[in-house]
Amino acid sequence: MRTRAKTLGALFILSAFASVSMAQSDPFTGTWALDPVASNKEGKGYLVLIIDMTADREAYRNEFLLPDGTHEITRYRAALDGKEHPSETITTKPDGVTQVVRKDFVSVKKTGPRDEERRHTNPHVVVRRTVSADGNTLFSKVSSIDANGHEGPVTENLVFKRVSQTAQP
Fold this sequence. Notes:
This protein is mostly beta strands and 169 residues long. Helix content is 14%, strand content 54%.
């Protein structure tokens, strides 16, 4: 009887630690693959997002493999403070030539427990992302911003499926 009580006690403690660990993990952290059918992007390439969130920072990397074999990587590290932070996009062509194709700035802020807003300066776009309640789907709505700072209609609705709970390629 004591052994059973100790076992149940140990299981209770372990489950409590697991619950705390899961609660501390940000829902955006992980590796996400574009669902081309749900995003209406069939045949447009393969896109993976790798996001590592902490309480106040986001490390972001997206890897886009285009149909012609070009590999494009965009990355940044930004505080979740709504201020501008550097972002860089590099491409590697099928012939091996690598170049920086875009340097711009990005601002990121959390707008809810499963929501964030990201703004880029080049091109001028706003991306609103939401993680589903079950944590397995990430929705991105992309809108352009005109020269006067006015946001246009949503131009892309992207749907990503979780590949991993960790931020790894």
